[in-house]
Amino acid sequence: MIKILTKDGTETLLNEEFNEAYHSTKAGAYSESLYKFVLPSRIDVMAKEKEEIRILDVGFGLGYNVSVAINVAKKENPNIKVSILSVEKDVDILNKITLINYPDILKEEYEFILSGHFSSEKIGDSTYRVYKSTNKSVKLKVIFGEGRKILQDFLKERLKFDAVFYDAFSPKVNTEMWTVDIFRVVYGLMTEEAVLSTYSAALSVRKGLIEAGFKIGLVEPLGRKSSSTVASKKAELPPLPEKEKSRIRSSPFSEVFRDKTLNKDREEIWRDWEERVNKRKLSVSKSL
Ligand SMILES: C[S@@+](CC[C@H](N)C(=O)[O-])C[C@H]1O[C@@H](n2cnc3c(N)ncnc32)[C@H](O)[C@@H]1O
Is 87 in the pocket of ligand 1 (CB under 6 A)? Predict the structure, then answer.
């Protein structure tokens, strides 16, 4: 495992299957969690207003989003209850977490995460391997398996969440997690006011979220030029500038990723997307 020191001094790892780092090296692992996920999903605001926050964490990874969310919520309101359901396909992920020196500010949260136990649990139609950590105020469950299947099983259980951290690897290498079809499932798992946050700025992702029924907004860039994205059914979001609306309408790259059966190979989803993008590029150049 290759360890990487990110811009803000916190550590991440390189994932060899996807050949991508778990975090933006230019934003910083901790800063990315705070500024692209936890604050955009309004964990600080909800901690002051609610008794309990239910978080859906897609792509548990090295646990930064989870630990920063607990840290921020507790700082705002020491009595807040937080319940987190994380989705993760890598059963070895907890061993990977032990390879990084997590930042001092998150020491308590990582000790909590690492204090858990494995068991199995029936959710929807399937039995999953589950990792649980619990204390007086925080409940964390990591469900191991294929994200698309787990999210559909959550829907069968009629689960609802107040916030969603959507943090798979990039659409190019992890395409199956960025389709309009999986966004529709996630839509069904959110309360009206819940905010989904993601680092992605891809037009195909933004258009996919809109096509799934969300309204979207943009979040200030960090470590790069492009803004990240938030989506919600009803919550007030930062604005989506006219220029971006027009790019989403007219750019060939705003074709959405499709996976109607929610079980296609990522290569097949990518090829189908590329074909549609190329067709649109051709028709744009013909019309010039
Ligand atoms: C960018 S990392 C997440 C980083 C993490 N949120 C953090 O704060 O440390 C993406 C994670 O998504 C997981 N993942 C990718 N594809 C998946 C899938 N189809 N189902 C479930 N998990 C998946 C990867 O194993 C990886 O741990």
Answer: yes
From the CA of 17, how far away is ligand 1's center (Å)? Answer: 11
Alpha carbon distance 229, 206 (integer Å): 7
What does the pLDDT look like over 193-213, one tens digit per residue?
999 999 999 999 999 999 999
Q: Does residue 51 fall inside a structural domain?
A: yes
Say how many Å lie between the CA of residue 61 and the centre of ligand 1: 5
How many other CB atoms are there within 10 angstroms of residue 23's CB atom? 29
Counting from 1 in the atom list of ligand 1, the atom nearest the Cα of 12 is: 9
Per-residue pLDDT reduced to its tens digit, 237-249: 999 999 999 999 9
Q: Characterize the bridge pairing of strands 81-88 and 52-58.
A: parallel
Which structural domain, as residue segments, surrounds residue 123? 24-286
The Cβ of residue 275 has, within 10 Å, a number of other Cβ atoms equal to: 11
Q: Is residue 14 part of a domain?
A: no
CATH number at 264 reads 3.40.50.150
